[in-house]
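Structure (tokenized):
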């Protein structure tokens, strides 16, 4: 009888374990490139009433939107490495575009794989070396192309731009097709982590034919700071990536399309004969329409993925995340591109749906960073946070229970120095932002050797949300700036980014900190 009782108990434990295994959620992590929050109607902005993102809006209505999700290094390759590792750039070693995430490096996919999950990544990888930690991968070489993309699997992988198979069609549609194919053929007995990464909305901002007439014969509204032609009126200490540069790219691509690095839609284009204001206006209208059309195609495919979950009974137990690898300037400050600590570049859109736990239609204003993504995913999967992850789970935040010790300030660092976009680091809290432009290339690959004069910038985001007044030298903020420098120094020591290995930085910090 004793043996029979033990057997019954063992069976009961097994059934409980199996039940718990069944309940482990799937995770569908969808990420676009540069799809900034200003291009979605779930965030406020100049284009809110014009963007076409009904499926992302549906996802938001059924889940939670993060209002202050911040990137730690606003450029594609480093952000993607951070999302996989939960580490800052100085920790995972991916400082800029030329660096690779080594296959031997720790990453969250490996942890999921070791804990009974199926893992897959489809689409833009952009981390140079062969993906590791994934049971299946089918990824673009480098940036990839919008039309008839080549994607590489384990069977045909070669480093660089070699290898792979061409897939006919528009990249966003193709990447979704391949994602759905894997989902349909997966092992139904295991939970999954699927990472679906779109190339869109990256330059050249292309789109499929079904969206070519979206915004046709319309003039879209302009950001208030579109005609900022330089730092003179704002006290800014650097030039930035002017949208006029994009005009030059359009015209070079028009003149010699076979020699240009990408193919822009609806060429040729010219601003010849136009004054600077009218030229910028024309460039903006082309740029913004192309960008929003590209985003509309992304949204279309988000809808396809959500419909698959609905039709196959997976929606209830699948966490769906939609984000982008960073923000992007859509003409604000007269810029395009990302990189800088300014709000448009710093903010990552982030929407998450998990019907079992997250209240539909909710929003969260806590300071979340991309170092936190792996910790959150591990938490949902019932996996202890890996030691290599520097971030922390924000699962309780999403339920409306922000921990008392949650961060009050976020650290940022951009490493790829150029004189018009200097190397810098900074700190942002709920109201203020403080940045130090140290202006040194250090040993970062592709950084430009010409240095810039070290400079500070400070913005009161409550009084100056568009960041058009550098108030660093305003006496009324002296005490606040002093306190933020203390916090900035504390954060740098805490995460191990102190620059002590660079003698030039030691001198600069000594001479320019106070």
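Design, position by position:
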């Amino acid at each position: 009888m004793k043996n029979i009782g033990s057997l019954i108990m063992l069976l009961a434990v097994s059934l409980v374990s199996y039940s718990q295994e069944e309940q482990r959620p799937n995770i569908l992590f969808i990420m676009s490139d540069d799809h900034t929050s200003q291009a979605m109607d779930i965030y406020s902005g100049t284009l809110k009433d014009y963007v076409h993102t009904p499926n992302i809006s549906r996802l938001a209505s059924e889940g939670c939107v993060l209002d202050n999700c911040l990137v730690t290094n606003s450029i594609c390759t480093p952000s993607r490495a951070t999302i996989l590792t939960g580490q800052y750039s100085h920790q995972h070693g991916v400082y800029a575009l030329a660096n690779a995430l080594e296959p031997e490096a720790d990453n969250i996919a490996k942890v999921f794989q070791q804990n009974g999950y199926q893992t897959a990544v489809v689409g833009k990888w952009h981390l140079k070396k062969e993906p590791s930690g994934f049971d299946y991968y089918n990824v673009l070489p480098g940036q990839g192309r919008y039309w008839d993309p080549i994607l590489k699997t384990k069977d045909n992988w070669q480093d660089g731009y070699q290898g792979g198979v061409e897939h006919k069609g528009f990249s966003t549609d193709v990447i979704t097709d391949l994602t759905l194919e894997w989902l349909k053929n997966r092992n139904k007995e295991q939970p999954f982590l699927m990472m679906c990464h779109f190339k869109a909305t990256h330059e050249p901002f292309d789109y499929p034919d079904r969206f070519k007439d979206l915004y046709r014969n319309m003039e879209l509204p302009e950001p208030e700071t579109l005609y900022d032609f330089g730092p003179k009126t704002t006290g800014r200490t650097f030039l930035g990536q002017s949208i006029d540069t994009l005009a030059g790219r359009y015209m070079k691509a028009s003149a010699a399309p076979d020699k240009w690095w990408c193919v822009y839609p609806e060429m040729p284009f010219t601003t010849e004969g136009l004054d600077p204001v009218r030229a910028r206006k024309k460039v903006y209208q082309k740029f913004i329409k192309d960008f929003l059309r590209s985003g509309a195609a992304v949204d279309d495919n988000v809808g396809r993925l959500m419909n698959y979950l609905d039709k196959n009974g997976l929606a209830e137990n699948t966490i769906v995340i939609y984000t982008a690898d960073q923000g992007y300037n859509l003409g604000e400050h007269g810029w395009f591109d990302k990189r800088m600590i300014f709000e448009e570049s710093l903010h990552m859109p982030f929407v998450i749906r998990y019907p079992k736990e997250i209240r539909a239609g909710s929003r969260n204003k806590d300071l979340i960073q991309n170092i936190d993504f792996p910790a959150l995913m591990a938490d949902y999967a019932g996996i202890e946070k890996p030691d290599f992850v520097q971030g922390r789970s924000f699962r309780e935040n999403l339920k409306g229970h922000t921990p008392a010790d949650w961060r009050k300030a976020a650290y940022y660092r951009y490493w790829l120095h150029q004189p018009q976009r200097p190397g810098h680091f900074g700190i942002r809290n709920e109201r203020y932002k403080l940045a130090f432009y140290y202006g040194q290339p250090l040993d970062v690959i592709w950084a430009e050797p010409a240095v810039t004069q070290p400079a500070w910038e400070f913005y009161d985001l409550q009084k100056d949300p568009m960041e058009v007044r550098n108030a660093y030298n305003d006496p009324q903020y002296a005490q606040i700036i002093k306190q933020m420098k203390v916090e900035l120094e504390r954060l740098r020591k805490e995460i191990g980014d102190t620059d002590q290995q660079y003698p030039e930085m030691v001198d600069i910090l000594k001479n320019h900190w106070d």
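Reviewer-requested clarification: Residues 1-21 have pLDDT under 50 and may be disordered. The longest strand covers residues 26-32.
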